[in-house]
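S., here's the first fold you wanted:
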Amino acid sequence: MSIGVADERSVGGVPGRRMSLRDGEWLSCDHIRVVGPLAGVTAPVIRETLIALHRQHPEHGSVCRLDRASRRWVPQSSAEYAYLTNTDVEVLDWPEPGTPEAVAVAAARAAGERVGTAPHEVATAEALREALIALELGDRPLKVLVCGDFVGIRMSHAIGDGQVFNSLATEIFGAGAAGRAPRLPFPRPTRLPLARASLRFFGRAPRRALTLLRTPRPVLPQPAGNEPRRAWQPEVCATYARSDTGTLGAVRKWRDAHLPGTSIAALLFAATTPAFEACGLRPDGAGLMILFDARRYLGRGATVDGNFSPGEYLVPASTLDPQAIHGVMNAMVESGWPLASLALRDVYALRPGARHVPGPTRVRVQSSPALTLTHIGRLDERYGGLPWACVPENRMVLSAPTPAGPEAVTVTFAELAGVLHLNLTFHRSTFDEKAMRRVAELICADPVGLIEERSPS
């Protein structure tokens, strides 16, 4: 199934390349990543990296103009793109010069040696993240901000999902500092990936298609219409926490002793609900929205440059039980529903008016977090090679993907050098920021304790 054609390619005045339906449906969402402290990653170096990427791959979405109205990637001339990198890559002037904060930060940076993560580094990373949240991409596919030893990027989700984003972001951050040309994450993507994956999975065992049709799919619950509501407007916010170096090791040791075979993702997901409840935030419904990378259905070596990771709503016997969560996740993969979801999303995008759904303007007075969970896994292969200016346990990896709605909370788990990096993204116009920060701290401090305390067994 191929919906989305690379039809017209040019640099001057020609419409450009039409994005796939699947990628176009992500235009309202962006990726945000902040990392640091790094050495030698400056705004001029990143500009040169992007110019080199454009020179090698001028038709890739990351270096094209984004025409949102027609959903096209419009190539740009070398001169035009080089000029635009001056505003695509900027230095965040924080703190404001002359303020007491600026004096304190300058003194801390001049001190040189780091013992742990200094307060000014945390403040710098968070200021960079907030600045990126406030940025609007407009017709640009991505923008980069540099502040001190930290660098951040905001990239349109239409370029690709987390796999593409993490690969491309680390190339933009690290290639120039390493003295080499940037590489696209998937230089030769598989043609017709959804059709190939579907034929490979269902064609080898046709009974799977019949089983899929007979398997009821959990329905995302909708709030009752008679619940009190108030006026609402979006105000994206994020919070970040990082575990100690031994936390994930303790989780794996506990897993091997008590729940062998259960995935680390399921264990961390099971720790999430009790952390929210401990902070007075009872998650909505009996299920969890979990992202699945559908590349697993392609053959070895096959790649997808774009969006190929649908979200699936799962209802385990208990959101507190790691084995129950692990079981429904495996069942979802074995059913092939992620492939069906990708196809259904393409079909939905063809419906008249599907592109013009107005955003919500009201939210429930008693809001409940609607959780979307994603476990990125180990980032060492991509992020480990960046020019870090600190020991591994002091690295910071912040993110802020666009929340799916007024009550949506995206919880992102990632592991780097044995440390758990946890990010929560939500709307501060819906939820209390301090409560969300406490949720992240609880999960990072003792996920096993949260599981044991609330486990139904």
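And the second, which I think is the more interesting of the pair:
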Amino acid sequence: MQMSSTHAADTEYLVRQAANSGYQWSSLLAPPAYMAYVVARRGRTSLSLNKVLRATWVGGLGGSVAAGSVAYARYAYSGEDTVRVRRIKAAYNTDALRRNDHATIGGVVVGALTPAILWKRGAALNLILGGFGIGNAFGLLTHYGRAVSGDPAPKIDIALPGAHPEVETPPS
């Protein structure tokens, strides 16, 4: 399928956003799911920090690939105008921007602290990448905690191309 350069750029942007969200949600859900699975199947003695950290970053990677693939299939075969409007909405979505910021900050901080604190407890790769995944999940929870506690992201009104403002009816 031949895409125009703008459609390809819009699709790429939306796929990156979806992959980022997939990583965030999978990093949040993978550790508890893995721990529940291991405890139920093999008992508590089979659970280790190294394995939980590995499950966190592998689960995050899997969620990123899955969400990015679904987004590509969705947007690559959608109309160019539809994808353009969706990209503009995504670019000005302050809630998603703030969620990504919190997740990135949490990932960097915990990704750096995990190996420093737990160096002898696991493989370096699992400590760094797993710490980043857990920090990403903490950032995601921080974002939603702020939104629930009364500090939501500000809304931005944008004029979308091709959208017609509703005509106001004069009072009778």
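Why I say that: The radius of gyration is 20 Å. The chain has a mean pLDDT of 89.

Talk tomorrow,
H.
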